[in-house]
Design goal:
Elements (H helix, E strand, L loop, with lengths): L19 H12 L14 H10 L3 E6 L5 E7 L8 E7 L18 E3 L2 E3 L3 H21 L6 E7 L10 H6 L7 E4 L8 E4 L1 E10 L14 H12 L17 E8 L9 E10 L5 H15 L4 E10 L2 E2 L5 H12 L18 E3 L5 H7 L4 E3 L14 E3 H37 L3
Helix pairs in contact: 1-3, 3-9, 5-6, 7-9
């Protein structure tokens, strides 16, 4: 694998053209746009994103889902046959806020103490800003990009992706040789992530007078037994090397009719996180087996409500190595660029899910997740991303964009050599 480099060897490397003030300004501009989902306000960000990408010379379009949700598609490059394409996939929507929990207005994009604070700063408008700055740095450096850089800045990731990346895939609009998703990873390279299987568990009891609870059967009490059986249970004897063991969170409980009545019904909502290779049927069966083994006399029904697959880029993989090399080479010094991150850190898995699954599972596009910030700050009050992380991510992405054509050419050459060895042709 050849490293990313400028066309003129006497010029500085592309990552040195990343401007910390500019990436911060872009991220703050995006945070100030309220794109909460639900209800799905991504259209508010379309003008700003289109203007930013058009100013860089991208051909920009807006794809609108059947439900009317927009995603921005932009290409920097000629789109010529045989020219490699690096895709940047990022989501524009953010989760709702409880404003009373925040110490600052959530959509002000406040910069304080080396942090950008606001809903979406970490998840993931900071990552989108870093990717845009990466392309800006390539352009400013004068490097001749041998690959097309495509942005898919999509709707609806936070509620499953059906109105964003999934529709782009279904429409045949996702074509790339590799993809980087700049979700928050603490500047690590993530190659695997859990999926989610959610369900409603209906528990049935027998009503009776609350003064004599032994004469009926409490659905609430039986639901408590199911909760004990499932919550924090171990579903696999052999954990995944990056994702650990699957988990089950009993997230909500609803039941009973009055304080003086034995509860005739109760309902649990569960979220069972999954590992790569687990199907919806596999997970459903594991839930039934766990309940039946622990609560054989309980009357219940499991109603699945949602499923998204886990995904991974199996290691070793040359694209994962390429992005990790860009991460290390783009550092201004050889010191770690984030908490606990260093040259021996290795690849990581994510307990969260992202749109990377559509690219890995449906299209077999090699995809890694790498971006600024931490999932520990995402979705909470006073969400933030460190300004240094924005700059570091932009440096890595600039180097990846500049070096992707060389990487793709080396891969094609390796494939040709392998083919010659197999067939004996020269």
């Amino acid at each position: 694998m050849r490293p990313a480099r400028a066309a003129d060897p006497n010029r500085p490397s592309v990552e040195t053209f990343v401007r910390a003030d500019r990436v911060c300004e872009t991220a703050a501009e995006l945070v100030r746009i309220d794109t909460r989902n639900p209800p799905g306000r991504e259209s508010a960000a379309v003008p700003a994103l289109s203007n930013l990408l058009n100013a860089l010379g991208c051909d920009t379009d807006v794809f609108t889902s059947r439900s009317g949700r927009p995603s921005v598609i932009a290409r920097y490059g000629r789109g010529a046959p045989g020219r490699p394409t690096l895709l940047i996939n990022g989501h524009v929507d953010v989760v709702p806020v409880v404003e009373s929990d925040w110490t600052v207005p959530p959509f002000d994009g406040l910069v304080r103490d080396g942090r950008l604070i606001g809903r979406g700063a970490a998840d993931m408008k900071g990552g989108i800003a870093a990717a845009i700055e990466g392309l800006r740095a390539c352009i400013d450096s004068g490097v001749e990009l041998g690959a097309d850089i495509v942005f898919h800045l999509v709707a609806d990731e936070e509620t499953g992706g059906d109105h964003g990346t999934a529709e782009l895939v279904a429409a045949g609009l996702v074509r790339a040789d590799a993809c980087i998703v700049p979700e928050p990873t603490e500047l690590r390279v993530a190659v695997a992530e859990r999926g989610s299987w959610q369900a409603r568990i209906e528990v049935f009891g027998t009503a009776g007078h609350g003064g004599d609870p032994g004469r009926g059967r409490s659905a609430v009490a039986d639901a408590a037994r199911i909760t004990t059986a499932l919550h924090l249970a171990r579903f696999h004897a052999r954990p995944h090397p990056l994702l650990g063991s699957p988990t089950c969170n009993v997230a909500m409980v609803r039941g009973g009719v009055a304080a003086n009545v034995i509860a005739p019904s109760c309902e649990l909502t569960i979220d069972r996180r999954t590992l790569p290779g687990e199907s919806a049927e596999d997970v459903h069966a594991s839930i039934l087996a766990m309940i039946d083994a622990s609560c054989p006399d309980v009357d219940y029904r499991v109603v699945p409500t949602f499923f998204c697959e886990a995904s991974e880029l199996p290691l070793p993989h040359p694209f994962a190595d390429f992005v990790d090399a860009c991460r290390l080479d783009a550092r201004p010094d050889r010191d770690p660029v984030g908490p606990g991150v260093g040259p021996d850190q290795g690849f990581v898995g994510l307990y969260l899910g992202s749109d990377a699954r559509f690219l890995r599972n449906d299209l077999r596009i090699p995809t890694v997740v790498h971006g600024p910030g931490s999932i520990r700050q995402a979705h909470g009050a006073d969400e933030w991303v460190a300004l240094d992380d924005l700059t570091a991510a932009a440096r890595t992405l600039a180097r990846a964009m500049a070096g992707f054509a060389d990487f793709a050419a080396d891969g094609a050459a390796a494939d040709r050599n392998q083919s010659r060895q197999t067939t004996g042709k020269m």
